[in-house]
Amino acid sequence: MSKSLVAIVFISAISGSALAADLPNTKEAPVFTPAPVLSWTGFYAGLNAGYVAADVDVRDVNGGVTPGPFSYHPDGGFGGGQLGYNYQFNQFVVGIEGDVGYIGLQGKGIIGSAAADHHQDLTLDSGVYGDITGRVGYAFGPALIYAKGGYAWFGGSAEQTTTNPGYVTTGTSTFSGWTAGGGVEYLITQNISVKAEYLHFDFGSKGGYQTNVGDDSSPIGYEFWNETSLRFDTVKVGLNYRFW
C-alpha cells in the first residue's frame, strides 16, 4: 500500500507541474522609459551680467598742442538680456542672437598742458549697447561649445574736454563696429540653460572737436579735431529659457 501511495503522489506532482507550465504568465514585463533626447533647436530669451574693460585711444589730428595718442582704460559692470534662435542638426548647432544692455564705466585720462592751470580730461560715459551675432557650435550631450560674431554698437559719449575756458568741446557718441568671441552653454533641463561667454568689441575710430571761442592761441572759431578709438573686452554669465 505504501508503494501505491508513493506512486500516486509522484504522478500528482508531475501532473501539477505540467499544468502550471501550460497556464498563461500574468506577470507584466518591466517598462523601460527612454531617456529624453536633448535638443538645442528653438527660440529662447534670457538675462546676463558681466564685467567690461575698455581701451580708449585719443589722438589730435590737425595740429593740436598734444597730438597723442593718449590712452586710458575705464572699466565697470554691465547687464542686459538676449533673444535668439538655435537649430541643431546631428551635433552641430547654428543660430542667431541679439543682445541689448547697459554698460556702466568708471575711469578717465588726463593730458597735461604747458600752462599749469590748464589740462584736458579724457572721459568715456556709460551707455546702452547692443549686438546682433551669428552663432555656430558643437554639442556634447547637454553641453554646447560655440563661437559667435557680428555687428555691435555702443551709445556712450567719448569726450576730450579742457579746463581752458577759451575752448568748447563737442564729443563723439554712438560708436558702431564688430564683435567676436565664444563661450560654453549647458542645458540644466530641456528648457533652461546657463552660459559663460567672452566677447571682444572693436568700434573703430570716431571724431570730436574743440572750438576756440576766446583763446589767443588760434583764430576764433578754429576747430581742433581729435579722433577716439574704442575697444571693449567683456566676460559674462547668462541664463536662458527655451520656449520650444
UniProtKB/TrEMBL annotation:
Residues 1-20 form the signal peptide. Keywords: Cell outer membrane, Membrane, Signal. The keyword Membrane applies. This is Outer membrane immunogenic protein. It is found in: Cell outer membrane. One of its GO terms (cellular component) is cell outer membrane. Belongs to the Omp25/RopB family. Residues 38-243 form the Outer membrane protein beta-barrel domain. InterPro entries: Beta-barrel_OMP (IPR027385), OMP-like (IPR051692), OMP/PagP_B-barrel (IPR011250).
